[in-house]
């Protein structure tokens, strides 16, 4: 469905006075020629007022209903803690607002599906903020595979073990009820990136998790996963909040060559991709672009009826299914199927 606002600016309401909005998303919204940030909602009124003043946002609300009643708000960006996403997205859909939601969409598949269904019923756009599929190296890898440059992909490896900076530690490390832990925070991103680059679907996983010194209240701060995909490809994934100097990477190995990407599992528009075949090695050309600016542009195109979100609700549902399967596999020691049931 196209949006009735025509060519007027798309006014964004921030649901949550969050760090990610402050560091990345506000600038991404304002980078659009048709984008504006018009309001923010925080349950803490004092925090919301200060946040709005700091970022030049015209209005601050401490109730979601008040933000959704603002006629200048056409779309909402939800970046609250994970257990709040479902009710906030459904309320926004019922108010006729388009929804861009942080990952994971929810804590259960049923809740994520309810969010998607509410947006579909209301005729509003629904997308998941999976930023990594917007990275230039990942797009170059996807195209190289489609072009047959490495033959048939048979294995992949993701290194996404990083150090969670102190200003982000909080609930991710000590609030199970909010959906904390490295699996729902990082593994869920890896699932989407693998699906995007490989154009393939995971079918089963085995995993082990770790508490390496940061996780509290039973939450994991490290995990290693092996996943099998529909094509038969197997992937190895290492995620952590506790690795200070590891660097990130993504490799795909095929029957005729390999793609080796470095420094690519990041929010920043950096990284490189090396193609290695029997003919030797060469670096693939990439055109770096702010990942979030690209994602918001795609969302705006979807609202205008001229494109699709970079990652839609189905993508968010499938990445959540993967993460939940990994969490179950790590807890049970079993091989767990990745299903949408």
Automatic annotation (TrEMBL):
Gene3D superfamilies: Dihydrodipicolinate Reductase, domain 2, NAD(P)-binding Rossmann-like Domain. It comes from the Bacteria. Keywords: Oxidoreductase. Residues 138-259 form the GFO/IDH/MocA-like oxidoreductase domain. InterPro entries: Gfo/Idh/MocA-like_OxRdtase_N, Gfo/Idh/MocA_oxidrdct_glycsds, GFO_IDH_MocA-like_dom, NAD(P)-bd_dom_sf. PANTHER family: BCDNA.GH03377. This is Gfo/Idh/MocA family oxidoreductase. It comes from Azospirillum griseum.
